[in-house]
Write a structure and sequence with these properties.
- The chain is α+β, with helices and mostly antiparallel strands.
- It has one domain: GMP Synthetase, Chain A, domain 3, CATH 3.30.300.180.
- It has four helices and three strands, in the order H-H-E-E-H-H-E.
- The protein has a three-stranded mixed β-sheet.
- Strand 1 and strand 2 form a beta hairpin.
- Helix 1 packs across helix 4.
- The longest helix is centred in the N-terminal third of the chain and has 14 residues.
Length: about 80
Amino acid sequence: MAKYRFWIQKWIEQAHTPAAATWFGQAEWRVERQQIEVVFANPAVWQMARERELDSLIAKYYRRITGQEVPVRLTFRGERGTDHL
């Protein structure tokens, strides 16, 4: 996932959300239960990610690289296990 993360993050920052480089770069990415989970530092950052539809963009670029569909879930620290979509 690490090699894909670099390119996905780079494309999103260049094409969609250039100002997100810092907070998006600090997010933790996990692969769990056949999905990508992106965990942000706090609810404010998570909300910005949701407003910019980063889950859809991550899924789009992952599909472009691998040819596979995978769901993406955005969460924030301290609230893992709760569905925030």
